[in-house]
Amino acid sequence: MRTTWIFAALTGAVTVAAGIAHYAHATSLLTFGLSTLALAGLAWMVSFSTEHVGERFGSAVTGVLHSTLGNLPEFFVVLFALSAGELVIAQTAIIGSVFANALLVLGLVVIAGCRSSADGVMRFSPGLSKDNAILMMLASFLIVILDISAASNDGASHHVEEISVVGALALLLTYAVWIVGYIRADDGGGPTDPGAHVLPTRVSLPILALAGLGSAFVSEWFVDSLSPSMARLGVPQAFAGLVIVAIAGNAVENATGVVLALRGKADLAVSVVTNSVAQITAFLFPALVLASLFFATRLTFQLAPVFIGALALTGIALWQITSDGEATPFEGTALGALYAILAVVTWYE
Question: Can you give the pTM of this predicted structure?
Fold first, then answer.
């Protein structure tokens, strides 16, 4: 626990330093570097406090809380990107979070879970992974249909915004039906780890509130410094959104899943990661589409063809590897390899 407080103090110091760099108009690279570290630390603090709040309820509620509040930094990053007119960054940040969690983080979780298993095979409940794959397929269906319409230049291609709004509402309704059933079906009924040291609510809730508030400020500084920093480094915008923003704002907090897998808590580890994937595709993405109606730059479900293909294939890979409730180191490595290939392709996009 002492290490935790030291890390929290360091995160606070880095956040203050990032704020000073931003308001003192320091170089974009310095502000970007400090903001990235601060965003990652705040994401971890959100994850940490959420886990302690959720420990009192069970694995389903903990997983939902973790993914919902853990996506706060990503939500703010995309909002500020849209307000700044950075549509490419906004789009790739969202789908980058899907790829980072479904491929990179889940791959690491599988490898970690296999290491903690006596026979080298990670076992978990297949129901949750199957549901998340279905939600991802539903979002992919909407995105693919829109792209086909745009490519053929038919009548629907002139109404992408309207279709995106209706699609967003349909996704949110489906997600709501799923989440209610998922929580009701949870048989945990209590703490996910009765022997664990859990922070009192009067401590964990203020930490959560401060980390969430800090994420809002740091996200603005992060977005402001992102484009000029990437231009100076020669990093393509799509790569910055898909890889750098996704890892800084979302995948880092899901390192909790790796830790849980190493402790042998396979169900909770998979729940944390796959819940995040479902949240991004069926909740965060459509919610941001609706929120973008208040900005000059509108977010829609129309993406570049390469990302549409990658999203659909990621859904298939997720289904194939997790549907049987077992995973091996080979499968975890394969997920990581898919992410590496996608990152390289994005660099040259």
Answer: 0.81
